[in-house]
Design brief:
Helix content is 45%, strand content 12%. Strands 1, 2, 3, 6, 12 and 13 form a 6-stranded mixed β-sheet that branches. Strands 10-7-11 form a 3-stranded antiparallel β-sheet. Strands 4-5 form a two-stranded antiparallel ribbon. A hairpin with a 2-residue loop joins strand 4 and strand 5 (172-173). The protein has helices at 2-13, 18-41, 47-62, 81-97, 111-123, 137-141, 161-165, 200-212, 234-239, 257-272, 282-290, 304-309, 346-359, 362-371, 385-388, 391-400, 409-427, 433-449; strands at residues 71-77, 101-107, 130-134, 168-169, 172-173, 176-181, 184-189, 245-246, 251-252, 296-300, 314-317, 332-340, 404-405.
Length: 475
């Protein structure tokens, strides 16, 4: 009798509906009769039968959710191959943990294609519940009212400040940052430099010592700055306590004392002291660092893998404090994030929120570090014990914490053009720092309005035109 009751206990686990309970009562009667026969015959259930019952119960529990009880949501992405593979692994892990939710995906070759199709579908009342794309997408999609405002999906106080700055449109958040990337940091070759300099006075002093030393071959540089590309100049404006735009209005703020101080630093380093050498392109600087002819440079975090493969004994740190100042330069940072379709409601919206919570968990954030060139978005994740064991990763995240948000591409194009043209004029001796700062602002306004032609540069996406996200943006 006791063995029969155990059988019934296991059968009960897989039956939940009222109809099933009625069948169970019938089984109880039959089992009691059978148990009585077994007792009279001296037979009892063996361990093999118990094991079989347990296996049947496990199968029943796994299959207990029927298809009509599963919530299916669709996600569109335009990820690079490595990030795409990491995402699919995370997706599979999620659906294994949340068995009542299924996620279907669709991959696009470019963000532009994804945005165009998503906007059209959403305006028609359809489209995927959620999309994963570059944070640039906020300025493209939010004005069309095709995405939900993010209210309860994430606590932005937990997110890197630079990413928070570019998550909003008209002071409302429309994207949940998920991964960070695309920022500059300071590299030094540990075969020559024991510890990174604390400020640019030390950087220039080291570079000058290398220039004057007879211990190195000709063509050896203590430090090289890629001054021909504006992305390497912009961080210093932040270091001098200014910035290039006002995020709340997307208005230009280039005519500032911070811009002037940046230009004065460049004039001193290149034209007055002759410590730094101008005119080197990115590829040349990259190769010089690889072969040990450049001891310190500024480059993107994603280049670390390339330098390691080249067997450079690299160290990373925050870009040293600005010349004559006390603050650190602030490179631009961008990342990937989730946007929610404005047509998403009810159980689908709850499923989307569950998925976002899952993807922002430390376990998932850390897992992506090893399989992609992206970094987490959680401000305090570097306090995790596993995070701190990677010296390069930890140093890079220290830089990420003091980055500023990268403006949307169309606006950044005009800023790059205005800065690059006037830095060239400054180093040629054709204009003074104060006048150059004013002209940078004026040129950017004219470039933005279309009254000044936009030049292509190595930082500009080919074939891209200036398209303002909203006619209400201020100059």
């Amino acid at each position: 009798m006791f063995e029969s009751k155990n059988k019934l206990k296991y059968i009960l686990v897989g039956l939940k509906t009222r109809g099933a309970i009625l069948l169970l009562l019938a089984a109880l009667v039959l089992s009691g009769a059978a148990a009585g026969c077994n007792l009279f015959n001296g037979e009892t259930a063996g361990p093999e039968e118990d094991l079989a019952i347990e296996e049947e119960t496990e199968i029943t529990e796994e299959e207990e959710i029927s298809g009509d009880l599963i919530t299916t949501i669709t996600l569109w992405d335009c990820l690079e191959p490595r990030e795409r593979m990491a995402f699919m692994e995370s997706r599979d892990s999620f659906v294994s943990s949340f068995r009542d939710i299924n996620i279907e995906t669709r991959h696009f070759r470019s963000q532009e294609e994804l945005q165009d199709q998503f906007e059209a579908a959403s305006l028609a009342g359809a489209g995927p519940e959620i999309i994963l794309l570059d944070l640039d997408g906020v300025q493209r999609l939010a004005p069309s009212n095709v995405t939900k405002e993010i209210v309860d999906e994430v606590d932005y106080a937990l997110i890197l400040e630079g990413l928070r700055e570019i998550s909003a449109y008209n002071n409302k958040n429309y994207i949940v940052p998920f991964r960070s990337y695309d920022f500059l940091t300071f590299y030094y070759n540990k075969d020559f430099v024991e510890k990174p300099p604390s400020d640019f006075e030390e950087v220039l002093e080291y570079a000058q010592n290398i220039n004057e030393s007879g211990d190195f071959e000709e063509g050896t540089y203590g430090f090289i700055l890629n001054e021909s590309e504006a992305d390497w100049i912009i961080p210093f404006i932040g270091g001098y306590n200014g910035w290039i735009i006002d995020y709340s209005t997307n208005s230009l703020t280039l005519d500032s004392q911070a811009t002037q101080s940046t230009l004065e630093f460049l004039e001193y380093a290149y034209s007055q002291s002759l410590i730094l050498e101008a005119g080197m392109e990115y590829g040349e600087i990259n190769e010089l660092f690889k072969n040990g002819s450049a001891h310190m440079i500024i480059d993107y975090y994603s280049a670390a893998e390339e330098y390691i493969e080249a067997e450079v004994n690299i160290g990373l740190s925050e870009i040293p404090r600005v010349w004559g100042g006390t603050r650190y330069p602030t490179p631009m940072i961008s990342g990937l994030g989730f946007m929610i379709n404005t047509n998403t409601y009810g159980v689908e919206l709850e499923a989307v929120r569950d998925f976002i919570d899952f993807m922002l968990a430390e376990e998932i954030q850390l897992a992506w570090n090893g399989s992609t060139s992206t970094l987490p978005v959680l401000e305090s994740i570097d306090e995790n014990e596993g995070f701190g064991q990677d010296i390069i990763l930890n140093a890079a995240y220290g830089q990420a914490k003091i980055c500023r948000g990268k403006p949307y591409e169309q606006l950044l194009m005009v800023i790059r053009n205005a800065i690059s043209d006037n830095v060239d004029s400054l180093l040629a001796g054709d204009i003074l720092p104060a006048d150059a700062a004013l002209k940078i602002q004026e040129d950017a306004i004219r470039l933005r309005s279309g009254t000044l032609p936009l030049k292509k540069s190595s930082e500009t996406e080919q074939g891209q035109e200036i398209q303002e996200p909203d006619e209400n943006d201020e100059e």
